[in-house]
Write the structure tokens for this entry.
Amino acid sequence: MNLELFTLPSNADFLRDHQSLTSIIPKIEAIVGREHVTTAAEDLLCYAYDATNRHCRPDAVAFPANTDEVSDILKLANEYPFFVVPRGAGTGMTGGALAVQGGLVLVMTRFSRILAIDTDNLVAEVEPGVVTGHFQEVVEEKGLFYPPDPSSAPYSTLGGNVAECAGGPRAVKYGVTRDYVLGLEVVLPTGGIIRTGVRTAKGVVGYDLTRLMVGSEGTLGVITKIVLRLFPLPEVVRTLSVVFSRIKDAARTVCEIIRSGVVPRTVEYIDQSAIRCVEDYLDIGLPVDAGAMLLMDIDGSPSAVEATLQHLVAICDKGGAHQIKVASSEQEAKDLWRARQAISPALFRLGPDKINEDIVVPRNRIPDMVEWIDELRSRTGLTIVTFGHAGDGNIHFNIMLDRRDKETLEKAESAVEELFGKTIALGGTISGEHGVGITKAPYIGMEIGSEELALMKRIKAVFDPNGILNPGKIFYASPPTADD
């Protein structure tokens, strides 16, 4: 495995032992206001972790309110060297918002305005601190639709979704966040402000800096405005749950659905362990003896939806399903999706800690991957739970454990490396929507070649010559030891 270490530019070596921010705090306060900067221990603790449950305490936290304030802070960070780590709601799964080398956490939640919704051109302009679920509700009230739907949508922010290129269940039909970002306003690590992209359906002038920024995990700039593409709101949405006795039959049925040419809005896959955890957590009548369950949404015109439903029922029946049920009410459909969204918190009933990976394989290789994971579960004795967006081959692979059990932890880490190797052998990728951050950085060389990695590092150095923005992410070979 090629564990390459990301090296900061030579003129940024002094940043490794960067000075305390204490003497700089008055200058930051002069930019954003005293009430929007904190060094209180209890506040630093609140911004020391994300959804990885790893802790890296920053030296200070600031809450800017506009683009000029962000620019001034980054200029200050280059003049008086200190690290700056952009942060949204802290829902990331790979440690992208952790201050792994200390410094200033730049919390973007005051950027919370929906600036414009253009119903004629199906375009919206928003600030990065807008909560994704809230934005979806607002546009739907206008008869419009923003498809990206990460499970964290009720509390994650659009800026964080853009930084990580978030996906979600609807990606099988509608694509991921990058497919909806038309343009950006970004503050560069040096403090310069750029505006990328277009507000039109087409645009090919110059390099596509917008796509470069989407998914860059806060390492190339701080996003301050986002121009998003919208769709008309579908007329009808129906929900279908399908229960299988065997996990292999569910996986093969997904392949048949996609091969048939019918593309549902979602095709979610939940294994038996996940079903049992969620039922114990919610008590809503899920089939706990099922080998696996598929959860599908179909949207469109009433006639198209009805035809698609009949087609899917026939495929599932032929695939060996022993229960096929169309949700009879909006509430029943909501309950099923509430169950899907509750999987992650429910899993902690199986162990206090979780290793969560989001591999993707070609859809026709899903049965191979599911069979291999079953074999891995039996061989290692680890508590492994899988679920995810089977419609686009994105499987969430979870190992539940207690990190204090060093023997089990070592076995789990070895299993993750095996998982990544198998994923790549099947033509897949080690991250579909969580990004790299710090947790997947040790494995990046398994997928990305040395020439490509070197080019990426040169791009980082061009944007961030002093290495001040979100250091230690993506290219770092092994995450620094986190403090508690």
